[in-house]
């Protein structure tokens, strides 16, 4: 489903990821951990082709992805939540935002809005549906961004710090929700309790030698 072989990624004049290899197969939850700045977000973005890799191989669903164009057909099959949900919410309302993905996938307007409403209900967020995305709290934004991603029925999830802005009750809710999804997922998280609850395995990132 996802395989990474000897991947190296540079940002500016610094190597951020050096010679990294791993695979994500089956219904597994692989967590990315490491100190701040060790490249967790960089890796997730490289896996979607948003940041180019200098060396190594990324395969999505078996296909070798090298240029940005190679990644495009797979982005609709992979649900990605950015570390900052403001980077992916554009509304205007919560319901419009969640319906945007299904509309883009070719559903009719009534179908897309039905899917969006159901997804918000599943997350217990339907009470937000008519609100502007600009007035949501940080935690609400996280859940709405996740609803938008799940409404597209992804085959794999890449989540960047999904517990940011959530209180313990909502971290529990998110944990249960992700466990019930039965999807392969790669999750960057600094939250050790959340990781312990969900991770099948953990990949530790370290700062590479630069020079
Ligand atoms: N656009 C950029 N240009 C140059 N360097 C960048 C850029 N974006 C990030 N970096 C650097 O790349 C390194 C890795 O950043 P990244 O955000 O991937 O780390 P992270 O492990 O996700 O960190 P955190 O745990 O704080 O979220 C950091 O040193 C960061 O300063």
From TrEMBL:
<keyword id="KW-0067">ATP-binding</keyword>
<dbReference type="InterPro" id="IPR003439">
    <property type="entry name" value="ABC_transporter-like_ATP-bd"/>
</dbReference>
<keyword id="KW-0132">Cell division</keyword>
<protein>
    <submittedName>
        <fullName>Energy-coupling factor ABC transporter ATP-binding protein</fullName>
    </submittedName>
</protein>
<dbReference type="InterPro" id="IPR050095">
    <property type="entry name" value="ECF_ABC_transporter_ATP-bd"/>
</dbReference>
<dbReference type="InterPro" id="IPR003593">
    <property type="entry name" value="AAA+_ATPase"/>
</dbReference>
<dbReference type="InterPro" id="IPR027417">
    <property type="entry name" value="P-loop_NTPase"/>
</dbReference>
<keyword id="KW-0547">Nucleotide-binding</keyword>
<keyword id="KW-0813">Transport</keyword>
<comment type="similarity">
    <text>Belongs to the ABC transporter superfamily.</text>
</comment>
<dbReference type="GO" id="GO:0005524">
    <property type="term" value="F:ATP binding"/>
</dbReference>
<feature type="domain" description="ABC transporter">
    <location>
        <begin position="2"/>
        <end position="210"/>
    </location>
</feature>
<dbReference type="Pfam" id="PF00005">
    <property type="entry name" value="ABC_tran"/>
</dbReference>
<dbReference type="GO" id="GO:0051301">
    <property type="term" value="P:cell division"/>
</dbReference>
<keyword id="KW-0131">Cell cycle</keyword>
<dbReference type="InterPro" id="IPR015856">
    <property type="entry name" value="ABC_transpr_CbiO/EcfA_su"/>
</dbReference>
């Amino acid at each position: 489903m996802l395989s990474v072989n000897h991947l190296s990624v540079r940002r500016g004049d610094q190597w951020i990821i050096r010679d990294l290899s791993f695979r994500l197969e089956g219904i597994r939850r692989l967590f990315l951990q490491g100190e701040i700045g060790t490249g967790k977000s960089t890796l997730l973005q490289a896996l979607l082709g948003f940041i180019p890799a200098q060396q190594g191989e990324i395969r999505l669903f078996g296909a070798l992805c090298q240029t940005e164009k190679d990644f495009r057909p797979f982005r609709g099959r992979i649900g990605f939540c950015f570390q900052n949900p403001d980077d992916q919410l554009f509304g205007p309302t919560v319901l419009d935002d969640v319906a945007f993905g299904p509309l883009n996938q070719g559903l009719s307007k009534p179908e897309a809005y039905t899917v969006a409403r159901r997804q918000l209900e599943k997350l217990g967020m339907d009470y937000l549906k008519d609100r502007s995305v600009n007035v949501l709290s940080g935690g609400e934004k996280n859940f709405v961004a996740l609803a938008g991603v799940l409404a597209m029925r992804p085959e794999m999830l890449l989540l960047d710090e999904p517990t940011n802005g959530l209180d313990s009750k909502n971290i529990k809710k998110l944990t249960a929700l992700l466990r019930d999804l039965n999807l392969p997922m790669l999750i960057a998280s600094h939250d050790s309790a959340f990781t312990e609850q969900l991770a099948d395995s953990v990949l530790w990132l370290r700062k590479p030698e630069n020079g």
